[in-house]
Design goal:
The protein is α/β, with parallel strands linked by helices. The chain folds into three domains: 3-206, 3-Layer(aba) Sandwich (Rossmann fold), CATH 3.40.50.300; 212-248; 257-378, Up-down Bundle (Zinc Finger, Delta Prime, domain 3), CATH 1.20.272. It has 17 helices and five strands.
């Protein structure tokens, strides 16, 4: 993967190239950044630069056969670990090696893809994946062997925050006493969810969201959008190139999140002293509970963003508002006055708590019904 193929992040690119050229390569590095910022793509490009002994600021001029292997992500000294789940073929104790063919297809198609995209690619988006101790054991076996080409062995751990405790503890021992010429690249969106003892042994590099001008330029060059359309997509993407790709391909929603949100807030608004609306909220909770935990988490996070957009509009910061609702007879302008300083913190806290409990396998119907009843009180709270 060429450095020039990766959008933005020029400072981090230059830092990685310079440190590699000078031979100052930390054995464990943590790439931290929001979805769509290019953390995985840059980790792969950096691995190629190191393994293929490339020169200059681009992945070329080194070992040609090595660079060729990276076109299919099949270099024998490059290893991947990522969240995985059971499916029809792997019914117990799944590990990354079981899904490596699917993984390569997924990354080559879109190295900016999200965790939810990965689950959708596997057809298991209703499950929650993790990195288990079986993966950690595979890491130990892989890195105990000599490198095929006599140089570095590189292990990329994608979504490292999904490691369970058993896997984290096993990996920690390896980070404390790593084999010679071994490089760990841990990629995450949630640094705080990685145990402190692992974080303390890694050099962290923090990626920022991509500037709108960078995403707009990519939209013009790759999808031939005119300037106005390119900047509209970039503004809606909010620094997330993966989201921009979904917008331009018109597949932004796997579920009708906007319709569900509007039905929810309308029912919550009517529910004050209205028993029929309470039944509507219970029916709504049952519908959302049926879509699987990853979908529920995606939707609840969508709700957080929707409320934030309404708050920004209510406080006259239109330049930060990018939502354009399409549900009939629902406008952000009419909804915004009901989201204000007196209720926004409580709404955010309730939604965040709901995400927490869903993630920990709580009963989704009870969680969502409780959330809905609380919203009926909060949505009527005046500033």
């Amino acid at each position: 993967m060429q450095f020039s193929d990766i959008l933005g992040q020029d400072y981090i690119k230059n830092h990685l190239v310079k440190s590699a050229v000078l031979g100052r390569i930390p054995h464990a590095q943590l790439f931290v950044g929001p979805e769509g910022s290019g953390t995985l793509a840059l980790a792969i490009a950096y691995a190629q630069f190191v393994l293929c002994n490339n020169i200059g600021a681009e992945n070329s001029g080194g070992n040609d056969s090595c660079n060729l292997k990276f076109q299919s992500l099949s270099h024998p000294d490059l290893h991947f670990v990522f969240p995985n789940v059971t499916n029809d073929e792997v019914k117990s104790k799944p590990k990354s090696a079981d899904f490596i063919v699917d993984w390569r297809k997924f990354v080559l198609a879109n190295p900016y893809g999200s965790l939810f995209d990965w689950y959708k690619h596997l057809g298991v988006q209703n499950k929650q994946g993790e990195i288990r101790v079986e993966d950690a054991q595979d890491i130990l076996k892989s890195l105990a062997l000599k490198s095929f080409e006599g140089g570095y062995k590189i292990m990329i751990v994608w979504m490292a925050d999904k490691m369970n405790i058993a896997a984290s503890n096993k990996l920690l021992k390896l980070l404390e006493e790593p084999p010679a010429k071994t490089l760990f690249l841990l990629v995450t969106e949630n640094e705080e969810d990685i145990i402190q003892t692992i974080r303390s042994r890694c050099q962290a590099l923090h990626f920022g969201a991509l500037p709108e001008v960078v995403i707009a330029k990519a939209m013009r060059e790759t999808y031939f959008l005119d300037d106005s359309s390119a900047f509209k997509v970039a503004h809606q993407a909010q620094g997330n190139y993966n989201k921009a790709l979904h917008i331009v391909k018109n597949d932004t929603e796997d579920f009708p999140f906007e319709r569900w949100f509007v039905e929810w807030v309308r029912a919550a608004f009517r529910a004050k002293g209205n028993a029929t609306a309470i039944h509507d909220l219970i029916s709504w909770s049952e519908e959302i509970a049926s879509i699987g935990r990853e979908g529920q988490k995606q939707f609840l996070n969508y709700c957080i963003v929707f409320f934030r957009q309404a708050l920004l509009l209510n406080y006259q910061t239109q330049n930060l508002v990018y939502f354009e609702p399409t549900v009939e007879k629902f406008t952000l302008e009419k909804f915004a006055p009901f989201v204000n300083g007196s209720n926004i913190n409580a709404i955010f806290n309730e939604l965040s708590d709901a995400v927490y409990h869903v993630e920990r396998n709580g009963n989704a119907k009870i969680i969502l019904t409780d959330l809905s009843i609380k919203l009926t009180r909060l949505i009527h709270k005046n500033e």
